[in-house]
Amino acid sequence: MQNSRSCWTTFLVLVGVWTSKAQECGHSPLQSRIVGGYDAGEGHWPWQVDIQTNQGHVCGGTLITADWVLSAAHCFPNPRDISSYVIYAGRQSLNGWNPYMSMTRVTQVVVPYGYTDPQLGQDIALVKLSSPVIWSDHIQPICVPDSDLVFQAGTVCTITGWGDIRDGVSLQGAGNLQQVQVPIIDQSACQEMFQIGAMEQVNVRFDMLCAGYQEGGKDSCQGDSGGPLVCQTSNGTWVQAGIVSFGLGCAEPNRPGVYARVSAFSSFVKTNIQGIQLYGGARQNWAGWVAMLTRTLFALAMTLLLR
To answer: Which residues pair with 179 in a beta bridge?
Structure first.
């Protein structure tokens, strides 16, 4: 009887170890200016990072693993010259006291081959940290979507950042992190909006998505670049749908914000970050269950051999 109990204990421990995750993405333990936005609650967006140089705040980004940040390619005009970049995680305000903040340097920036300009697409950057962050209630990763995850038009998502609160008007006072909700816009509808009274040609490409309101009023702005557009799934998990890329003005009518579509870069992410788990649909879930079942059967077989 004692031997049987010991075998089952071994089995449960093995299964627990093999099926556990190092860190679950897309959950904000503390959750209960962006144009038209408002102050975010402290710790509500724990994946948000502040990217600075010796000139101060330049862009936003998101933690996707303990040592990789997701941002925009245009935030790094020369990806080989990264000596001045500093990443702040767990930050709430640009100018106030941040008791939960950590700081790290950058050792590598990876952008897609051939990237030249946000309006031509491929506006994504993977930023390698010099040392991994330590997870806490205020520092957590966001989920990165796989290629088969679709965010439908009309889905209301959230932009966060420390960018201008109006075109040419920077964030004032303590500079608290801002948030605003905007719906995703159908790609063809977005293209039609940009053609209304067009002084500048904008082509909404396959690796872009639009979000905002046709009447304007709520949008990302200068300084929000590289930051996230995140959407909450039906099970409560937050997934990053877009990266703040470009716009014509800020919150203007018929000029919604344009974002790099993160799911379009799933292969790029997996190629450069070994072992990262993307948040996907049926194919990934099925593969995960097969792997879990295989490990469980192996654990059971090992338990029987130990009897």
So the answer is: 38, 160
The average pLDDT across 143-172 equals: 87
The H or E element that residue 11 is part of is helix 2-19
The pTM for the full model equals: 0.82
> How big is the chain by its Cα radius of gyration, in Å?
21
Q: Give mean pLDDT, residues 270-292.
A: 71
User: What's the CA gap between 162 and 15, in Å, rounded?
Assistant: 43
CA distance 146 to 222: 28
Q: Which residue has the tokens 């040392």?
A: 131
List residues bridging with 257 in a β-sheet. Answer: 211
The residues that are catalytic are 74, 123, 225
Enumerate residues 6+ apart whose C-beta is below 8 A from 239. 26, 142, 143, 144, 145, 149, 230, 231, 232, 233, 279
Q: Which of 15, 9, 47 is nearest to 28 (CA)?
A: 47
Q: How big, in percent rounded to 5, are the helix, strand and coil portions of the chain?
A: 20, 30, 50
Name the DSSP class of 248. S
Contact between residue 38 and residue 161 where contact means Cβ atoms under 8 Å apart: no
